[in-house]
UniProtKB/TrEMBL annotation:
Residues 321-414 form the Histidine kinase domain. It comes from Streptomyces pulveraceus. This is Oxygen sensor histidine kinase NreB. Its EC number is 2.7.13.3. InterPro entries: HATPase_C_sf, HATPase_dom, His_kinase_dom, Sensor_HK_TwoCompSys, Sig_transdc_His_kin-like_C, Sig_transdc_His_kin_sub3_dim/P, Sig_transdc_His_kinase_ChrS.
């Protein structure tokens, strides 16, 4: 059998060369060929010593062995050189069989050689031809007609062919399976890369949205308050210097607060009130006191805490609720024209609720999403976005002339954060 196991497989044998079982079978056929050739030559020399044909038998045996050894050099593809080699190999064997029928059993390894190199139909034709020579040689050696000698060689040829075809098909299936696995792995890697790119894009968008809300609820609101106070101070500077200076001092306090927020914002984006210690309750009380002082009598903000949390709130929940309170109070100052507002933090078993109530002019909640058109505010959409990221809900109770109550509820049970929602203009 040609040892093209390590070469490129030919038609009809594709994939066999990469099968470990096929390689072992190749080595076994090599060993069997040389063993059968040596045994046949030994048998002939022992039974026919000194005959005239003996030199020819020895020479043809050596030639057959040399030709067989050349097989690995030519490979297993049906190239012109390999086909010529196979034809010469079979022709030398046939001459040996005609001269000495005992060489017929070397046909078994030659079956595999033909099956490996030739296309399927040509290989089967070669197997049939070799089988006929084997049957004829066995009948020559027999003293009379023996049915076993007629039936045994075709049976051996059929078994050898079936084994090889089965191994070839198994190797083909294994190759197809390997190709599908490689395709699946490539698809998986490509999908993972696309997923990672999508997650990076979504993370970038979510981070941009979060940063815009952080800036809106801190620096932008503070700068807006400073602008109004400084404008008021400018208008009353000549008529009422004391009031103007009070406005300037209030604006200075807001600027100091904004500076602390900016520094904390750069450091880790945590609210400055929370960074000072005391928890969310203390931060909300400090916010109420500060907003009352900055309003200079126009707005009074009170803070109430109901219940006690059994566990400390996560940092992102505390930060979000404080930012919601800041954003809601900024809306109260700018739009509600209220004189009183209340922050109520309620700790429940499964959630924490922050209510922001005011006695202002109120509005129609169904029309808040797209009616204001303010260029500088996130407003209620920003609050909804913060709660959405935490799996929370926002409830609005309001009517024209009856004030407003915003209720932000955040669940305390662990839950997968929903994807960020697109930001809507206030």
């Amino acid at each position: 059998m040609s040892s093209g196991a390590e070469g490129t497989p030919g038609p009809g044998t594709k994939g066999v060369s990469g099968d470990p079982d096929a390689r072992w079978l190749t080595l076994l056929m090599h060993a069997a060929f040389f063993l059968l050739l040596g045994a046949s030559l030994t048998r002939f020399l022992l039974r026919h010593p000194g005959e005239a044909r003996t030199p020819w038998i020895i020479a043809l045996s050596v030639a057959l062995a040399v030709l067989y050894v050349l097989g690995p050099v030519l490979g297993s593809r049906p190239t012109p050189r390999s086909l010529v080699w196979l034809g010469v190999l079979v022709a030398v064997w046939m001459v040996l069989v005609v001269l000495a029928p005992s060489f017929a059993w070397c046909a078994v390894p030659l079956f595999f050689t033909g099956l490996r190199i030739l296309p399927p139909r040509a290989a089967l034709a070669l197997v049939a031809l070799l089988t006929l020579f084997v049957v004829a040689a066995q009948l020559r050696l027999a003293e009379g007609f023996d049915p076993n000698l007629v039936l045994a060689p075709p049976a051996v040829a059929a078994v050898a062919t079936a084994v090889f075809v089965h191994m070839r098909r198994q190797a083909g299936r294994q190759r197809e399976l390997s190709e599908r696995q490689r395709e699946l792995i490539d698809d998986l890697l490509r999908t993972r890369r696309e997923l990672a790119a999508t997650e990076r894009r979504e993370g970038t968008l979510a981070e941009r949205q979060r940063l815009s809300m952080e800036i809106h609820d801190t620096l932008a609101q503070g700068l807006s308050s400073q602008q109004m106070l400084l404008q008021a101070a400018d208008r009353t500077w000549d008529a009422d210097p004391a009031t103007a200076r009070r406005h300037v001092r209030t604006a200075t306090g807001i600027a100091e607060r904004n500076l602390a927020e900016a520094r904390r914002f750069v450091h880790d984006l945590a609210p400055a009130d929370l960074a000072e210690g005391g928890g969310l309750e203390a931060a909300l009380r400090a916010l109420a006191v500060r907003e009352t002082a900055q309003a200079q009598g126009r707005l009074t903000v009170r803070c109430h805490v109901e219940g006690e949390g059994h566990t400390a709130l996560p940092d992102r929940v505390r930060s979000a609720l404080l930012r919601i309170a800041q954003g809601a109070l900024a809306n109260v100052k700018e739009h509600a024209h209220a004189t009183e507002a209340a922050l109520t933090l309620t700790h429940l078993d499964d959630r924490v609720v922050l209510d922001i109530a005011d006695n202002g002019q109120g509005f129609t909640p169904a029309g808040t999403a797209r009616t204001t058109g303010s260029v500088r505010g996130h407003g209620l959409p920003a609050i909804r976005a913060r709660l959405h990221q935490l799996g929370g809900t926002l409830t609005i109770e309001s009517a024209p002339g009856e004030g407003t109550v915003l209720s932000a509820a955040v669940p305390l049970t662990p839950a997968a954060a929903p994807p960020p929602v697109p930001e809507e203009p206030a």
